Amino acid sequence: MGVSDIGRGAILEWEGELWSVEDYTHMKKAQRRPVAQCKLRNIKTGKVLPMNFIDNDPFKVVHMEGRKLQYLFKDGSLYTFMDIETYDQLSLNEEQLGDLKQYLKNNMEVQGLFYNDEFVKVDAPNSVELQVSKTDPGVRGDTVSNVMKPATLETGLQVKVPLFIKAGDWIKVDTRSGEYVERVNR
């Protein structure tokens, strides 16, 4: 495998362990070999590691099997999901989920990723709709364009939202960046 096969979200087998590529930058300088600068997350332990790969480094891009899962509940540090076809309950811990835990709502459908029939990761949708549970009211006179204020969502996630958003509104949040996308009518 070459560094051009790596991308954000890819799963690598490196040094006998599975790693998820959280961030990726491809660099090619004049008369030098291409380098992939990555931020890797160990799928089992959740440990984050910065790493640079060149073309002859011993890694393998792994292809995972995807299955539809439904998020059920959190018990301590374990998050439990149900396979929609078999009704099997599967769990991951907080470290394995990473930042995704801030976007999970009960009964939410997600894509579960399996490697050799072992549940290893949850792939989040690109955006989720969450309700604003707390935010300060917009102040009259704050009319400078793109003025943002902090808001706390139903899952505890904090994002910056426009002034017109109030508690009880539903908004769409990008799970890749954690940023406000738009208000949703419900």
Domain count: the total is 3
Number of beta-strand segments: 15
Q: Which CATH class of the largest domain is shown?
A: Mainly Beta
Fraction in helix: under 10%
Integer-rounded radius of gyration? 20 Å
Explain this structure:
This protein is an all-beta fold and 186 residues long. The chain has three domains: 60 residues, SH3 type barrels (Roll), CATH 2.30.30; 59 residues, Beta Barrel (OB fold (Dihydrolipoamide Acetyltransferase, E2P)); 58 residues, OB fold (Dihydrolipoamide Acetyltransferase, E2P), CATH 2.40.50. Helices cover 2% and strands 53% of the residues. The protein is built from one helix and 15 strands, in the order ββββββββαβββββββ. The strands form three sheets. It has a five-stranded antiparallel sheet with strand order 4-3-2-1-5, with no helix packed on it. Strands 8-7-6-9-10 form a five-stranded antiparallel sheet. The longest helix is centred in the middle third of the chain and has 4 residues. The radius of gyration is 20 Å and the shape is flat. The relative contact order is 0.13. The mean pLDDT is 85.
